[in-house]
Amino acid sequence: MSTAVVYYSMLGNSEMVAEHIAKKLGADVIRIEPDKAYPDKGAKKFLWGGKSAVMGEMPVLKPYEFDASKYDKVIIGFPVWASRPAPPIWTFLNEQKDVLKEKKIAVFACQSGNGAEKAFDRIKKQIGVEKFEAELILIDPKTRGNADNDGKIDSFCDKLHN
Predict the structure, then answer these.
(1) Where is each Flavodoxin-like domain found (predicted)?
(2) Which of 147, 136, 121 shows the shortest CA–CA distance to 25?
(3) Among 2, 37, 61, 123, which has the highest number of CB atoms less than 10 A from its own CB?
C-alpha cells in the first residue's frame, strides 16, 4: 500500500509543503481545485473565501483522480480560512468521508494567523476519526520560509514512516 497527499492551495503554500512531503515519503500527490477559482488578491479574497468557509460551502471541484483502495495513508493539506479547512478540501472530505475513516489520516495546515487546531477538529468530526497519525501547522511557509519549517516537515514525515 502507499500514501496519498491530497491538498488544496490558493497561493502556493500548501502546494510547496505537499510536494516536500510527497518527495520525502514517496507519496502520490493529488491536487484538489474548485471548478470556479476564488479571488486571490485584495479584499475580495478575504470576503469570498471567509464567507465560503464560515457558511460551510462545498464548491464543485474540477475532476480529480483518487482511488482510496490504493492507499493505506492519506495526508490532507490545506490553507486555514476562518479556523476552517478551505472549502475545496471540505468538498473532498464530504465526497470521500466513508472511505477516509478507514484510512490512516494525517493533516497539515498553512495559515497566516491561527485556527488550524479548530480546523483539524472539524475534519475529525466530518470524517469520523478520533485522532490523526500526525499533524503539522506552518505559518506562511512559502513567504516566511525558514530552516525550522524543514525540521517540522521532517518530524511530521518521520511519524508517518511506520
Answers:
(1) 3-161
(2) 136
(3) 123
